[in-house]
Specification:
The chain is of the alpha/beta class. Helices cover 22% and strands 25% of the residues.
Length: 268
């Protein structure tokens, strides 16, 4: 699989962000099977008291339409982060979802994933402004790969990655806006490598860059080695994922097959 990771720094103006995304995707010529952009590409989170609800768009809104046009032109599946209005079941005035959209090469929306683990950590409370998604892992087929979707803080919860792999994922896709800070780049690299090693899968992580975020989008192979990595600015990375590599790794490191605990203690 030929992959592109688009690292950029979104702002809080959706029109300006669409112009930025349009320019970055226009620079990608047909060829890759998968293009991944960061979490919150449509609109940045802004300051801690920034109300995201007015910026949330339905999944047939202008941001997804922009992605669809480029997906058709490139002939690629495009994955990016957006904010989606909450559903009626949550009640009037419920905060929006932090959503990943998966747009197929024909321009149709083939899947979406609403972030399960909201970033209530390091003095930040994402749950004050956003609603969590239902506890339902999302795996999507792209060519000869099965992609499991995670968003940013989800990376700190290995059980989600394992559920995705148990559902057949051989690649984990992790769009993120990983907030910068002491030790955070170390956490980012370490956790991405750990999810790759313990699940013997490729990990494809597209991150926001700029002063606020860590950047360092990267691809890790099923042994946890970094194949390619960005710095902290605007950059587009390329990588080729060998579909046979997870199988080869599992033949020498059959840790998934050797599991003895695969359900909560106390179950019959």
């Amino acid at each position: 699989m030929d992959v592109r990771l688009v690292q950029l720094a979104s702002g809080t103006d959706p029109v300006a962000n669409r112009e930025l995304v349009d320019a970055r995707l226009a620079a990608i010529t047909p060829g890759p099977s998968l293009v991944v952009l960061p979490e919150a590409t449509m609109t940045d989170f802004g300051p801690a008291d920034f109300d995201l609800a007015p910026f949330a768009e339905p999944l047939d809104g202008p941001f997804v339409e922009l992605l669809a046009g480029h997906a058709r032109r490139i002939g690629s599946t495009v994955i990016a982060g957006t904010f989606e209005p909450s559903t009626s079941e949550l009640g009037a005035g419920a905060p929006p979802f932090n959503t990943l959209v998966v747009v197929s090469p024909d321009g149709t929306l083939s899947a979406s994933y609403r972030k399960i683990h909201l970033y209530d950590s390091f003095g930040y409370r994402e749950s004050d402004r956003l609603s969590p998604g239902v506890l339902e892992p999302v795996v999507v087929d792209v060519g000869d790969r099965r992609l499991g979707l995670m968003t940013c803080y989800d990376l700190r919860f290995p059980e989600l990655a394992r559920l995705l792999v148990d559902d057949g994922a051989d690649t984990l896709v992790v769009p993120a806006a990983w907030v910068a800070g002491e030790g955070k780049l170390h956490h980012w690299r370490t956790l991405l490598a750990a999810r790759a090693i313990e699940n013997t899968v490729h990990v494809v992580a597209a991150a926001q860059g700029g002063a606020r975020y860590t950047g360092h989008s990267l691809v890790a192979d099923p042994q946890g080695s970094i194949v390619v990595e960005a710095a902290d600015g605007d950059e587009t990375l390329s990588a080729l994922l060998d579909p046979e590599e997870p199988g080869r790794t599992r033949s020498t490191n059959p840790s998934l097959a050797n599991r003895r605990i695969d359900r909560p203690r106390g179950d019959a």
